[in-house]
Design brief:
The structure is a single chain. By secondary structure, the protein is of the alpha/beta class. The protein has a single domain, classed as Alpha-Beta Barrel (TIM Barrel), CATH 3.20.20.70. It is about 35% helix and about 20% strand. The protein is built from eight helices and 14 strands. An eight-stranded parallel beta barrel has the order 2-3-6-7-10-11-12-13, surrounded by eight helices. It has a two-stranded parallel ribbon with strand order 1-14. Helix 4 links the parallel strand 10 and strand 11.
Length: about 280
């Protein structure tokens, strides 16, 4: 049997705007619809932000609550993952919605330069976010923008601050952060497996490098992330008509590498998550 690949779809993020691509879903209703289309196309994990009516990012628990409720109703078993990134708030405000108990939440274990700002993840905030995730039974997805974040996640796991096998997303292609480099990715994967042999990982490429990371991840045995948060185009010239279209692109790539999209049950098992009915 071919090896299953968990396809993550990041449906909106906090940067792409309607002016960049009219397909970018902004409202809660638009996001629920887009998540369902992506789910039906083969995605089993959805990465979530919410926005205000003016498209600005927010940590509003009420909006997150409506979004989670809609996705759970229309995408049975789909893994929900909330962003705790810094664009949506400051300090502990970034974790204000964790009490909603999504399956997963993003956790950057260190700070890094972004194109125009520092993505600030102070140690005390990282520790607090991790403790809240443990309190509510949420599995962290470690967002690794450089090597130190992998080692920090492993140290937190050894100290009991992260439970179970690590799941790490290698983010490549953000200006001023980790470049898109095959040798670096292979070294990161090797290092992660040395630190936590049971760890799983996903490759996330930004912009034009989304497909590049999907190909490398499929070849190296990892999982894939796609979606309008990271890329508003199918290729250099063509705007992506939907998140579902980007998922379909990864599904097609799976076949080229002898892989197949994971089912909901397979994805939950691979990530050591409980069945949806028990969540």
């Amino acid at each position: 049997m071919s090896t299953p690949c968990i396809i993550t779809v990041a449906i909106t993020g906090s940067v792409p705007k309607k002016k960049d691509n009219p397909a970018v879903p902004i409202s809660v209703d638009e996001q629920i619809e887009s998540a369902q289309e992506a789910f039906e196309a083969g995605a089993t994990l959805v990465h979530l932000h919410v926005r205000n009516d003016d498209e600005s990012p927010t940590s509003d628990p009420e909006r997150f609550g409506r979004l989670l409720e809609g996705i759970r109703a229309r995408c049975p078993g789909m893994i929900t993952q909330i962003s705790t990134g810094g664009r949506s708030g400051a300090g502990r405000e970034r974790g204000a919605m964790l009490g909603l108990r999504p399956d997963m939440a993003s956790l950057a274990t260190g700070s890094v330069n972004f194109p125009t700002r520092v993505y600030d993840n102070a140690p005390d905030l990282v520790d607090w976010l991790a403790s809240e995730m443990q309190r509510f039974g949420i599995k962290p997805e470690i967002e690794a923008f450089d090597l130190s974040m992998i080692f920090q996640a492993a140290a937190m796991q050894r100290a009991g601050r992260i439970a179970g096998p690590l799941h790490v997303q290698f983010v490549m292609g953000v200006k001023n952060a980790m470049p898109v480099d095959r040798d670096v990715l292979e070294f990161y994967v090797k290092t992660l497996k040395r630190l936590d042999p049971d760890a799983t990982w996903t490759g996330a490429g930004i912009g034009k490098d989304q497909v590049t990371l999907a190909r490398w991840s499929l070849e190296l045995g990892g999982h894939c992330r796609t979606g309008l948060e990271d890329n508003v185009r199918l290729d250099k010239a063509t705007l992506a008509p939907s998140n579902a279209a980007l998922v379909e692109q990864v599904v097609e790539l799976c076949g080229e590498y002898g892989r197949r999209p994971a089912t909901v049950l397979e994805a939950r098992r691979l990530l050591a998550l409980p069945p949806a009915s028990a969540g």
